[in-house]
Automatic annotation (TrEMBL):
Keyword Transferase part of the UniProt annotation: yes
UniProt GO molecular function: ATP:ADP adenylyltransferase activity; nucleotide binding
Protein's UniProt name: AP-4-A phosphorylase
Species per Swiss-Prot/TrEMBL record: Bythopirellula polymerisocia
Domain of life: Bacteria
Length: 186
């Protein structure tokens, strides 16, 4: 049997521990309230002179009045999204009622869009509160929306410690950004 290779060049920053990615070279015109400049979610929520170009680099697929939705740069599966409030808050009780509702609406909208455009058969939706609970960014609350397909949990993670992501982040960004703009009538 010939050895097969799986290429995932976007993972090198994570594997090498280099978090200085492209989005950090962008200079926001306006930050959201309470923003922290070293928080990638705050950078995604910020406003830029070239919003479409900045959104593509920051992997933002949709913006709302209260939330930002972006692709996870280190996805568990194809189409793995993060939904975060625009404000830099780390606890559920710090969210306003409007922010709670907006986050749930974004999650609901994207389960529909991903089902329709990426043919997902199900979803895992989760939130880690605090570093001991697994939060990689404990200061900025965010939900993970992880699309699932029948048979997507194959032997690779168990045997090889590798996840197979069948589509590039850029290709998924195109699909979901266009679907989101169609949903919002933009």
């Amino acid at each position: 049997m010939d050895e097969q290779r799986i290429w995932a060049p976007w993972r090198i920053g994570y594997v090498a521990g280099d978090e200085s990615l492209k989005e950090q070279t962008l200079v926001p015109q306006r930050w959201s309230p309470g923003a922290e400049e070293d928080c990638f979610l705050c950078r995604a929520a910020a406003e830029y002179a070239d919003p479409t170009g900045a959104d593509r680099l920051n992997l933002v697929v949709a913006r709302g009045e209260q939330t930002v939705t972006l692709l996870n740069r280190y996805p568990y599966t194809n189409g793995h999204l993060l939904v975060a409030p625009l404000r830099h808050v780390g606890q559920l009780h710090e969210l306003t009622s409007e922010e709670h509702l907006a986050a749930m609406k974004a999650l609901s909208t994207f389960t529909e869009l991903i089902s329709a455009h990426l043919s997902a058969a199900g979803f895992n939706i989760g939130l880690n509160l605090g570093r001991v609970a697994g939060a990689g960014v404990p200061g900025h609350l965010h939900w993970h929306l992880v699309p699932r397909w029948s048979g997507d949990n194959n032997f690779m993670p168990t045997v090889a410690g590798t996840r197979v992501i069948p589509q590039s982040l850029d290709a998924v960004w195109e699909v979901l950004r266009n679907a989101s703009e169609g949903e919002n009538g933009s």
